[in-house]
Every structure is written in structure tokens, then in C-alpha cells.
Design brief:
mainly alpha; about 290 residues; globular; about 80% helix; 15 helices
Length: about 290
């Protein structure tokens, strides 16, 4: 009721009077921009479990870089690339299904991060919680600049490789016949996925970045059917979750990252209920 009785005080004033809230807003929006676009391809290609594993796979790099006093973003990126290489290596040399190799590395990397951060040379549990759940209200101007650069890289890659991703997603054989090199395109998609996760961990943390990566594109796919529209709609839905999540966190003293992530899931459930009541069938995608 406060949001209706004093709309300016509830909706606008927190972002005007509080520089931490403004930085948090920009950080959340940049995270949405990166994750919604690459997350669309993750959802369409059925790579959600891989996205979740990769989100946790950056933790050892974060932990090691933090202990050594290095750049945590660089450490996270190196860990993500190591995990991608490890999954491909196990996939090529193991008779197990793909989800088994992903699951093994997922557990291994997460456990390694906890061991490092809980050791005598590691940091205290508060730092581990910050990596896991994010610290969006502590974002600095340099963090925002880094996010902006990474978001630009992700968007550029999505635009340049759109045709290759499109054909690879729906017909890999056709992609080969067209000379689009689907394996190389798949590797590029994994790299963009890793970069987008690294860009977003500061905002919502590694355990919650998966929500931004999957929930908005999944919701958008139920509402619109053309892939560019799915990306745009996912970005809008993610923006709504960021704004509402930050405001609820500010006024009711809840965890900002978790509140934003919960918002993405709530929007998905609302869209699912509406679609069910409307009697719509399966999602149909169009180029």
C-alpha cells in the first residue's frame, strides 16, 4: 500500500538519494542484457543444466584470485574456460552421457571452491557468501565499466553469430552443408555463455545467476515466437525483476540478489498460469 500512497517515495527516491542503489540498478540491467541474449540460445538448445554447472564452475577461479589478491573477474573467466574444456575432454573420452560429465565437474568445482574458501589460507564465510549470493549494493564504478565491456562483447558475438546459432540449433546437418562449422559455433556459444556468467556474478552471485540466464528467456518463449523478440522480451522481463527486486530489498531489507532472482521465477509462473488458462499448446518458435 505504501507504493500506492507515496509512489515517488517508494519507486523513485531510492534511486535518486542512494548512489549504491543507482549502481545496483545499472549493474542489474547490464547483467540482464548479457544473460537474456545468450540465455535465449541456452534455453532453445536445451543447455540449461550446462549453464547451471558453468555458473558454479567459476567459483574456484574466484576463490583462488581472491586469496592471491588478483582480479576475481579474470579468475572466474579462466575457471569457466577450464570447465568448458574439461567437459569437452570428458565427453570425448568417456562412455558416459553428457549430463554425467557435466554433473561430475559441477560437483567437483563447487566442492573445490568451498574447500579453498574454508581453508586456513582462505577467507572467512562472509566472502564465500558474497561470491555465492552476490553483493550488488557494493558495486563500484570500475565494476560497472567491466560489466559494460563484457555485455558489449556478448551482444556483439550474439549479433555476428546469429545465423550460425540459428541453423545449428534447428538443423546441425544443414549447418555443416552451409559451411557454418557448427562445432566452432558451439564453442563460441559456450565462450559467450562463460563471459555472460562472469559479467553477472557480481550482481546476483553464482548460485542465482542461473535464474537470470534461464527464467526470463523461458518466460519470453511462452509469450512470443520469433527469436529476436524472445531476446527483447527476456530483457524486459529481467529488467522488471531487477527494478522490483531492488525496491523490495530496499524497503523490506531482503537479500537483493535473491529477491531479483525470485522475481524472474514469479514472472515465469504467472506467464505459465496465464498460458494454461488460455489453453495454449506447446511453444512454437519462428525464425
Amino acid at each position: 500500500m505504501e507504493s500506492l500512497a507515496s509512489p515517488f517515495d517508494w519507486w523513485v527516491e531510492p534511486f535518486i538519494d542512494n548512489i549504491f542503489m543507482r549502481n545496483a540498478l545499472w549493474s542489474g540491467l547490464l547483467a540482464v542484457l548479457a544473460t537474456s541474449t545468450v540465455g535465449t540460445w541456452v534455453v532453445l538448445r536445451g543447455m540449461s543444466f550446462f549453464g547451471e554447472a558453468l555458473a558454479h564452475g567459476v567459483l574456484p577461479g574466484l576463490a583462488i584470485a581472491f586469496i592471491l589478491g588478483g582480479d576475481t573477474t579474470l579468475g572466474a573467466l579462466i575457471a569457466a574456460l577450464v570447465m568448458v574444456s574439461g567437459i569437452n575432454l570428458i565427453r570425448n573420452h568417456s562412455p558416459l552421457p553428457d549430463d554425467s560429465s557435466i554433473g561430475l565437474l559441477y560437483v567437483g568445482f563447487l566442492a573445490l571452491a568451498v574447500v579453498i574458501m574454508s581453508s586456513s589460507s582462505g577467507a572467512y564465510s562472509g566472502d564465500l557468501s558474497r561470491f555465492l549470493f552476490g553483493s550488488i549494493t557494493g558495486v563500484t564504478d570500475s565494476d560497472l565499466l567491466r560489466q559494460l565491456i563484457i555485455a558489449g562483447i556478448v551482444l556483439s558475438g550474439i549479433v555476428v553469430l546469429h545465423r550460425a546459432f540459428l541453423v545449428m540449433t534447428f538443423d546441425e546437418v544443414q549447418a555443416r552443408l552451409m559451411g557454418l562449422r557448427p562445432r566452432l559455433a558451439h564453442a563460441a556459444l559456450l565462450a559467450l555463455l562463460a563471459v555472460s556468467i562472469v559479467a553477472s556474478f557480481q550482481a546476483v552471485g553464482n548460485l542465482l545467476v542461473f535464474a537470470f540466464l534461464v527464467a526470463p528467456p523461458s518466460t519470453a518463449a511462452m509469450l512470443v515466437h520469433r527469436i529476436p523478440l524472445i531476446m527483447i522480451t527476456a530483457a524486459i522481463l529481467g529488467t522488471v525483476s531487477v527494478v522490483f527486486g531492488l525496491l523490495i530489498s530496499y524497503h523490506h531489507d531482503t537479500a537483493a540478489g535473491a529477491t531479483m532472482a525470485l522475481g524472474t521465477v514469479v514472472l515465469f509462473l504467472i506467464a505459465l498460469i496465464i498460458r494454461t488458462l488460455a489453453g495454449s499448446g506447446k511453444v512454437r518458435l519462428a525464425v
